[in-house]
Amino acid sequence: MAEIRAFRGLRFTQAAGKTEELVCPPYDIISEQQRQAFLQRNPHNIIRLELPREGEDPYTVAGETLREWTEDRILKKDTDPALYIYEEEFTANGQKKRVKGFICQVKVEEFEKGIVLPHEETLSKAKADRFDLMKATFCNFSQIYSLYMDEDHRTLSRIDALSSGEPRIEVDDGEVIHRLWVVNDPVAIRAICEDFAERKLYIADGHHRYETAINFRNWCREQGYSVPGDDPDYVMMMLVDMQHEGLVVFPTHRLVRGLTGFDANAVIEGCKQYFDCYVRDNLDEIEPNLDALYRQGKKAFAFYAGGNQWTLMILRDPNVMAEFLPEKSEASRGLDVAVLHTLVLERILGIDADNMARQINLTYTRSFEEAMTSVQSGESQCTFILNPTRVTEIRDVAAAGEKMPQKSTYFYPKLITGLVMNQMDRQTP
Are residues 258 and 346 located together in one domain of the fold? Predict the structure, then answer.
């Protein structure tokens, strides 16, 4: 099953500056204005490598910058192979939480082998960008986020014991406190690696980067840069116990825009064929109502098209999904997003899968306030407020060999970039 191993992480040295000035959020949620702000704070910020924009060929510039920083000892590889325990402390839904896992190298395997399993569809443009960056740098600057099953929490107990002391690094970004411990004891490393001999991994966040890692491994072999067993056969991952009490998944709400002849009342009438629909007057009740139904295991969402009213829609009979998605597993048919997409967006609003993928009439946000404001400002015609996908649903869909629609999950908080990197050696062709 999953093959994991320790590695000599590439990390910033004191010569680079303060850690809080060197790290950044994931590249795909950073605006150009934010990117410039990170660089103004410290020109050595990891964003220069992770999201390069300088020069005619930014990827080549990133590769040259990486070489310069290693030569100038701005970045330096750890002396011994290690596992890197990583904890995030944060507040979600009014509660203080902590989630802890560890960063390691994972052997890249094709999805059909059933060892590393995806759960979401991906976009080709994002994969091309990451592939060009990897070819130029031979480095993973950020971790793929994956989950594993461990009923006895054996591995979590190990990493809790190994991280009982002061962390090597602690960074407070104002929203999340990030902590990193370095474990280079060979006995401890071997015990953790052996834990995974019979385990599968479920990708939570980073599908584009994992598919890119497969392509990069193949390219390296074709170019003569590596042979089986070399560094390009592995990718950097953060692994977290799927039943960790600190795991948080936020919903991703749907926003509809630009539909010709849009009629909110017609949408509600059309939904009544499959949903019990209740008109409500208090917008503040949307999230509490949905949360209560979530706890009951109901399939429900809120429809809002402006003004002071909204409509609560509760699926009357979940078995109806078998009629429309007979080829899908029960796990896939039972997803809130599958219910919404199949019965409402496609059948009533005429937004098909290709339209969704290209985001012609459909966009996404995890922010309830942003979804509501978008409709109130006229930017969007309506929004569908959803409940979050359950972690067990992610596992079951992946185990069935299927994928959820894009933007089905939002794991919070995102992993910070720049605490540790995976720089790969290459052979001379």
Answer: yes
